[in-house]
Design a protein that fits this description.
Blueprint (H helix, E strand, L loop, with lengths): L10 E4 L2 E3 L7 E2 L2 E6 L2 E7 L11 E4 L3 E5 L1 E6 L15 H16 L2 H17 L2 E8 L2 H11 L2 E8 L13 H12 L6 E7 L7 H14 L3 E5 L3 H11 L3 H8 L6 E5 L5 H10 L2 E4 L1 H6 L7 H6 L4 E3 L12 H16 L7 H7 L2 H6 L17 E5 L11 H7 L6 E6 L2 E5 L2 E2 L4 H18 L1
Parallel strand pairs: 1-6, 2-7, 8-9, 9-10, 10-11, 11-12, 12-13, 13-14, 14-15
Antiparallel strand pairs: 1-4, 2-3, 4-5, 7-16, 16-17, 17-18, 18-19
Bound molecules: zinc ion.
Length: 445
């Protein structure tokens, strides 16, 4: 019998507390994690005494929590260039009166590339290793994500009117097909997908056609849904039903559809959602900022609906820090229900990791620290005044930590942040580029 070939270790994380977020929920003190060829080769307690080849890079994990990288299931990365633009307006007025006109005037490939670069810098510095992004000119966003070594689901965005990169919406279907053909299978890190903006900006024909392309090409289909009371009234006025029932009639709801927000759903709609096996991206900070409402998360969870967390774009959040999003999610649902038991710290951490990965169909690859998974790993510094007491790691990470405590980040076994320093992005340049764009918008708007 042949012996299996020993896999080569490239990186060894030594020491620290591994919060694996696996099904068994094990927490490993004094952990040792071996990484080779971008994969987690082993994770165990205590260090082995075997000598290591000199080529192995050792990361000191002592004084750190070690977690799977966070998964942001909904973002519009280039919108960092619009951060702070027309804040504090109702969603319909903010979108139609400010964001859509600004997008028509300013968004081009350079805008998308600069915005994506800065957003990825912010995301990985705060512990996010996978992002699902929905915007226009997605090829520019995808190229930047690949250069930065970010794991990403990049969605091409569609509406009934002309949008940046698609002057003629009659070409939506062709553009969707070409985008998938260009990027599908191009990299281990990148997954293309398709995004219809919302049922009030996409006609039944647009929704059905784009979902059909997604189905034919075997990719995910996403849309904002039932975000505000205004949307519910508008869809009822146009189609005589609610947004979710409208999409159900169109036949676009299935296990490869992700619905973003789902703030306004009744019990029967939640049953439909569960039956069709759609996944949900929950974005509580954006919902709170826009006063959209509180999504019925406990009722979704009790039906077994798969739910991940998203930040939404930086124009409606305004940061991309999933630690903040986790804390807000638990806080808002405990507050709204006056029930402490609706969600605990571990469930919130799982929603930001393995459940987010499940939303994106990546749960076999990422989302927990387990042998055989890709090495998307973050180290969170415990040597901070507010983290100094040893308590339950999940509770401390939820209620006391922030993205600013993330010290080191690996994506696919590559170190992209080392002791708070980005290794694949020039942060100064990224900030400068977006500042210049934002100034131009300010001057010409
Ligand atoms: Zn959004």
């Amino acid at each position: 019998m042949r012996c299996p070939v020993e896999k080569r270790i490239d990186i060894l994380i030594r020491g620290g507390t591994a919060v694996t977020l696996s099904e068994r929920g094990n927490i490993i003190e004094d952990a040792e994690i071996g990484i080779g060829n971008g994969e987690i080769l082993f994770i165990r307690r205590g260090s082995s005494k075997d000598p290591l080849p000199e080529s192995v890079e050792i990361i000191d994990g002592s004084g750190r929590y070690i977690l799977p990288g966070l998964v942001n299931t909904h973002c519009h990365m280039p919108m960092v260039c619009f951060r702070g633009l027309a804040d504090d307006l109702p969603l319909d007025e903010w979108l139609s009166g400010h964001i859509f006109p600004a997008e028509a005037r300013f968004v081009d490939p350079a805008f998308c590339a600069a915005g994506a670069r800065l957003a990825i810098a912010e995301l990985i510095l705060s512990g996010t290793t996978t992002v699902c992004d929905s915007y226009f000119i997605p090829g520019a966003v995808a190229s930047v994500a690949l250069d930065a070594g970010m794991r990403a689901v990049i969605c091409a965005g569609f509406a009934d009117f002309s949008v940046p990169g698609i002057p003629d919406p009659a070409k939506n279907e062709n553009i969707a097909e070409n985008f998938i053909d260009r990027w599908k299978g191009s990299s281990q890190l990148l997954t293309p997908a398709l995004f219809c903006h919302a049922p009030y900006t996409c006609s039944p024909k647009t929704m059905s056609k784009i979902k059909a392309v997604a189905g034919r090409r075997g990719v995910l289909f996403l849309t904002h849904l039932a975000e505000t009371r205004w949307e519910v009234d508008e869809i009822n006025r146009r189609y005589g039903t609610t947004p979710l029932r409208h999409l159900d009639r169109l036949g676009v709801l299935d296990g490869a559809t992700i619905l973003v927000h789902c703030t306004w759903l009744d019990d029967k709609e939640l049953d439909i959602l569960a039956e069709r096996r759609c996944a949900v991206s929950h974005n509580p900070e954006s919902n709170m900022k826009l006063a959209a409402g509180v999504a019925p998360l406990p009722a979704m969870r009790s039906r077994g609906i798969v739910i991940g967390l998203g930040t939404d774009g930086a124009a409606s959040n305004n940061d991309l820090d999933l630690f903040c999003e986790m804390r807000t999610a638990v806080g808002i649902h405990r507050h709204a229900s006056r029930n402490r038991d609706v969600m605990d710290a571990r469930s919130a951490l799982r929603m930001a990791t393995i459940e987010g990965a499940r939303v994106l169909g990546l749960e076999d690859k990422i989302g927990s620290l387990e042998e055989g998974k890709r090495a998307d790993i973050i180290l969170v510094d415990r040597e901070k005044p507010r983290m100094a007491i040893a308590g339950d790691p999940c509770e401390l990470l939820l209620w006391s930590a922030s993205g600013a405590d993330v010290s080191t980040v690996l994506i696919d076994g590559k170190i992209v942040v080392r002791e708070r320093k980005l290794t694949t992005i020039d942060a100064q340049r990224a900030m400068e580029e977006v500042r210049n764009i934002a100034e131009a918008i300010g001057e010409r708007n």
